[in-house]
Amino acid sequence: MQNRNKRIAIIGAGISGLVAAKVLEENGFSAVIYEKTDRAGGRLKTDIVEGFQMDQGFQVLLDAYPMAKKHLDFSKLKLQKFIPGAVIYNKSNKYTLGDPIRNISLLRSTLTSNIGNLSDKFKIVRLSIALRRKSIDQIFEETETTTKAFLETYGFSEGMINLFFKPFFAGIFLEPFLETSSRMFQFVFKMFGEGSATLPIGGIAAIPEQLLASLSATKIQYNVSVKDLSENKLTLDNGTEIEFDYAIIATEPRFKNSYTNQLNWKRCDTLYFTSSNRDISKPLIGLIADEDALINNIFYHTSLGMDVKTEEELLSVTVVKQHNLSNAELVEKVQQDLNTYCGINNLHFLKHYAISKALPDKKNIKNKTTTQEITMNKNTFLAGDYLLNGSLNAAMASGEHAALALISTMKI
Ligand SMILES: Cc1cc2nc3c(=O)[nH]c(=O)nc-3n(C[C@H](O)[C@H](O)[C@H](O)COP(=O)(O)OP(=O)(O)OC[C@H]3O[C@@H](n4cnc5c(N)ncnc54)[C@H](O)[C@@H]3O)c2cc1C
To answer: Residue span of the signal peptide, if any (predicted)?
Structure first.
């Protein structure tokens, strides 16, 4: 019982920190969270700009994520589902490719599209069935190669890889060469096959807001940056020292721990525009398959239900290729690309998010860590997607693991 009064500090109110706090509360403990910014959510933030609801970077919640099923209440989030498939822009043509098993209206367009050959379409079905039979743990135990090598070995044609897999997964992995681990590819493909890509009606930040609302005993201090951390004391940027008995570091690796200086990041740009009409009427993602294009994918957010209603359409455009353009040059180039590759014109530019630390860039990605790997010292534990892989599922799993490791240490 004495342990219930132990002072627990969590540094960082991203998804991993919030899930850690939730799991602590579920087990009768409570923490104080110290968060550098003015709100919770970390990389999950939504802004309202000029009356439009915009996520800070285009991202989706896959509702098949086991950790999301466990820690989130989907019905309260009013998840809006994307149609499984994509509209592909290539050489001034537009094709719709879908999962005809789940959306029969896409059968004809999928079979008659110029994307891949018939054998590719059978291979997609074969891969989906194979991944359904494989557990997530099995996927993460497999020998790692690049996604590109995996697809080539699987026998997909060059056309299928270049016109579908490359733009689709470049947008997810935030790198255009498909160098990301084949484990991540299989995991994400499995999750897409077993559920839907979704967005909460209130935007992506509704996820941390829901986790935050589930906490009743946890306290949060915003606008406090933790500068240093020793065995029982953390020091804030303003020099204040705070003592703790146990801590969870749920930030990117920034204190002296085994991961310091070992992490690279993938960056991206997301730009928002308004327009009077939609080039894609249904909630399907648009992929730009032309190699020369700077833009990777587009999505009309107004094709999904949103809390904030607008008369104009809201379009996001994501760039994953590296560039040296100034902000103004980028806005101009993106509009040029939209015109050249998609025939989309007459846009009003709203906002540009340049996200320098979007996803951890890691090899040897995992689905689980050992307690030893997340133990910084006897009373301090690590959480964060970077410990496993760049996904919301991983962020939640890491937060849960850190909280459980802390609790079992207290019980010793
Ligand atoms: C553009 C983009 C697209 C993405 N797409 C997807 C997607 O489609 N699907 C998916 O599953 N995932 C996606 N992700 C990844 C997902 O958002 C992350 O995996 C997840 O949000 C990471 O949560 P975290 O808690 O590990 O880290 P973070 O969200 O980075 O949280 C860390 C927190 O610590 C705080 N902090 C840092 N330093 C300090 C300090 N010194 N003192 C106090 N506080 C500090 C930060 O302010 C932050 O709130 C995407 C991410 C981005 C940016």
So the answer is: none
Domains of the chain: 2-44+207-262+364-411 (3.50.50.60), 52-200+265-361 (3.90.660.50)
**Separation between Cα atoms, residue 302 and residue 299, nearest integer Å:** 9
Ligand 1 binding pocket (C-beta < 6 A) is 11-17, 34-37, 42-44, 57, 59-60, 225-226, 250-252, 254, 268, 355, 358-359, 384-385, 390-392, 395
Is residue 367 a contact partner of residue 137, using CB atoms and an 8 Å limit? yes
Tokens 């993602």 identify what position? 285
The DSSP 8-state label assigned to residue 96 in this structure reads E
CA-CA distance, 59 to 79, in Å (whole number)? 13
**pLDDT tens, residue by residue, 201-213:** 999 999 999 999 9
- Which residues in the chain land under pLDDT 50? 1
Task: For a ligand 1 pocket test, name from 37, 392, 401 the mutation site with the most ligand atoms within 8 angstroms of its C-beta.
Answer: 392
